Every structure is written in structure tokens, then in C-alpha cells.
Amino acid sequence: MHTQSATKVAIVGAGPAGLLLGALLEQRGIDTVIIERQTRAHVEARLRAGVLEQGTQNLLREVGAAERMDRDGLVHTSVELALDGERVKIDLQGLTGGKAVMVYGQTQIVQDLVAHRLASGRDILFEVSDTTIDGISGASPSVSFVHGGVRKTVSCDYIAGCDGFHGACRGAIPAEKLTVFEKIYPFAWLGILAHCAPPAEDLIYARHERGFGLYSMRSPVLARHYIQCRPDENLAEWPDEKVFDELELRLGGRTTLPRGEVIDKSVTPMRSFVTEPMRYGRLFLAGDAAHIVPPTGAKGLNLAAGDVHYLSEGLTDFYRTGSEAGLDAYSDRALARVWKAQRFSWWMTSMLHDFGPGDAFGNRVYRAELDYVLSSQPAMTTLAENYVGLPY
Ligand code: RFL
Ligand code: PHB
């Protein structure tokens, strides 16, 4: 059996980019279909980002999916950076004219956006397989996939490729039409989620001769911590107590960390990646499908939100006025912001990590850079302005 249907915008991927784009378009009366490779339970349990810029928060409010975020999210008006155990508070609010970030899990955002869409009577097609993208260089594109054992084809005006770094959409663009920029870092993050209090009210980003450490949280009783490790690190060599011991050392050894049951432990590789342009014909890429940042700047999810903001504006203009000017400008507008976030994420990553014995000069220079930032008001202002998020 093969079923055919039609929509205005077919959205591939129900991560933050696809779900938020769906919500923005629905709100403006633009019909969408969202397909997702994984189960609903899988996408709602995936543990990822935790820091939201004001622009991201505002988009969630705009679509009416921010009730839980505004109730449970933790507003952070400052962040700490540590160099060899010496902690310095950076007053985000004071340095940016009143801006702050919100600590609220991507896991929860995805749950909130899925619930929001289902409550409006629209569905999400989970567990699709064999996704193919057709006709993007012509006037009638379509997305085809298997769902519930049935091959389905959805024809549409436009396709939004929100299917992450390993998705199908980027690969549907002829390779010679894309330019890829990539940098792989010689380290990764070992992350834990644990039932215990975070060590401080602020997030702490720490540089230490033993490597980077990040002390983050999901709530006052749920800590989310990371330590720099090898890309091929074996988790079996990291029993829970050893992770906490190492985190204490990277904070300078003078702070006793609250400890508790570890409920998740994983290794995340680090890369910077950008695809240009973010459009080919009637296919638009958004979020991790188009770019990856190392997590040190907390920008990945926020960039995905920025992309779909620009894309929703372009699509809204088209359906209201027939003008494609906003869609034609999408890639350039998104990339201008993406590259600034790439720069910031690379800078934070360089300043805070140990690049190993092979880059002794770099290690000294990056350490000096952090030392400088922590003693200079203008440098702290630069950090704060980027951390809270550049304007759309
Ligand atoms: P996602 O979240 O990867 O979603 C893509 C979705 O597409 C589905 N998919 C397909 N569906 C249908 N057909 C196919 N052929 C498909 N192929 C794939 C996938 O199953 C998936 O559901 O991409 P999106 O929406 O662009 O969102 C991007 C963010 O998830 C990502 O940038 C952030 O998580 C990055 N990130 C952080 N970002 C921040 O802004 N602040 C942070 O504090 C932060 N911390 C992090 C992070 C990422 C991390 N990891 C694990 C990579 C911390 C970590 C540890
Ligand atoms: C997190 O809490 O998962 C987190 C926070 C800040 C980052 C990256 C991840 O820069």
C-alpha cells in the first residue's frame, strides 16, 4: 500500500528545531506535517542541552509552550569561570543591560512542544523509516517514508530539514552545491546527571591543568556535570565516585561537592561544523542538520531556535504576500548568526580545555586568554553579551 497526502511545509525531525518550527507555523495558520525517526518516548527522554538564551525563551512563550519553563526554569543572572580553582563571577545581567539565561532542560522543552502540538489536535508521525527527499530542485517537492508498515508520500511547497547532524536532508543536496567547514577537537566530554545539589547557584566553567570541568544543573536537586576526557574514553573506567573525585580536583580541590546517585553517564564528542548555504531549492536546513558547535558556549539548541525563527518569518511572509524575499534571505541571515556563535563556542572551548602536550604553545596562550578575561571588564562584557545570546 502507498498513501499520498499534501501539506504546505513538511518538517523532517521532531527535535527542538522541527517542533518549534511546527509550533510557529501552526500559530500562523500554516499547515505542517512532522515526521520523526525515533519513538516519542525516545525523543522525550534524550538528555542534552540546558541553557536557554532570552530569544529562545521568548519563542517558546510566543507559541504558548512556556508554562512549565516559566514555572520550573532557573533564571541565571550570572555565571562563574574558574582558573586553577580561583572562581570569578561574571555578572551577565549587569554587563548586558539586564539580560539573563534560563536553565531548563532540552528534554523538558521537547516534552512541552510535543504535548503542545498534540493538544492542538495535530499529530507527529513517530517511528518513520526509509525517509527520502524528492523534487527539491523543482516546484513540487515531496517527502516519502514508511510509517506503520505503509509507504507514505507527502507532497508540499517546502521541506524543512530539521533532522539533526545524522539526518537524511543534508545528504539530499548535491555535494557540489554545499561547502562544509569542520573542526574536530582532540577531546570529548564525559557527562553525568546525578540526584544531588549543584555546588553553587551559578554554573561553573573550570579550566584546570587536569582538564576542563563544567558544574551545571537541571534543578536545585539535580546536578549535570561534565569533565573533559578522551574521545575514546571507556566509561567502564569511570565509576561514579571517580567522576566526583575528578570534578573536585578540577575545581581546585578546596570545594567538597555534593554527591548523589548518578542516573546517566555518557561521552559526547566535540566538533565545530557548518554547511553553506543552508538552502537548496525548496529544502531548508535548520539546527544541527546545518551546523554543530562544541557545547562549551551552550549555543546548539539556541542556534536551532534562531534558525527556525528566521525560517518561520520567511515562510509566513510567503504565505501572506507571495513574496519569497524572506526565504531567499534565510540562509544568509541564519549563517551570519551561526558564524558568530561558532566563533564564541570555539573561543570558549579553546580557553577552557587542555589541548594536550602536542600544543604546548596553544595551551599557554589559551590559559593567558582566560586569565585576561577574568581580570578585564571589557573582556567579561564580550563574554556576557555572547553567552546571553546575540539579538536576532
Ligand atoms: P536534534 O535534537 O538532533 O533533532 C533531530 C531529530 O531528527 C530526527 N531524525 C529524523 N527524523 C526523520 N527522518 C530521518 N531520516 C531522521 N533523521 C534524524 C532525530 O531522531 C531527532 O529527533 O536536532 P535539532 O532539532 O537541530 O536540535 C539541536 C540540539 O539538539 C543541539 O544543538 C543541542 O542539544 C546541543 N547542546 C546544547 N545546546 C545548547 O543550546 N545549550 C546547551 O547547554 C547544550 N548542551 C548540547 C549540550 C548537546 C549535547 N550533546 C549530547 C550532543 C550538551 C550535550 C551533552
Ligand atoms: C548543561 O547543563 O547540559 C550544559 C550547560 C552549559 C553548557 C553545556 C551544557 O555550556
Uncertain residue segments: none
Fraction of residues in β-strands: 25-35%
The averaged pLDDT comes out at: 97
Bulk shape: globular
> What is the number of domains?
2
Descriptive overview:
- The protein has 392 residues and is of the alpha+beta class.
- It has two domains: 2-76 and 101-181 and 272-348, FAD/NAD(P)-binding domain, CATH 3.50.50; 185-271 and 358-388, D-Amino Acid Oxidase, subunit A, domain 2 (D-Amino Acid Oxidase, Chain A, domain 2).
- It has eleven helices and 20 strands.
- The chain has helices at residues 16-27, 40-45, 54-62, 67-72, 92-95, 106-119, 240-250, 300-321, 325-352, 360-373, 377-388, and strands at residues 2-6, 9-12, 32-35, 51-52, 74-76, 79-83, 86-90, 101-103, 129-134, 142-147, 150-155, 158-161, 179-195, 204-207, 213-219, 222-229, 261-276, 279-280, 283-285, 291-292.
- The strands form four sheets. Strands 7-6-14-15-16-13-17-20 form an eight-stranded mixed beta sheet. Strands 3-2-12-19-18 form a five-stranded mixed beta sheet, with helices on one face. A four-stranded mixed beta sheet has the order 1-11-10-9, with no helix packed on it.
- Strand 18 and strand 19 form a beta hairpin.
- It is globular, with a radius of gyration of 21 Å.
- The site of P-hydroxybenzoic acid has 10 residues, from strand 15.
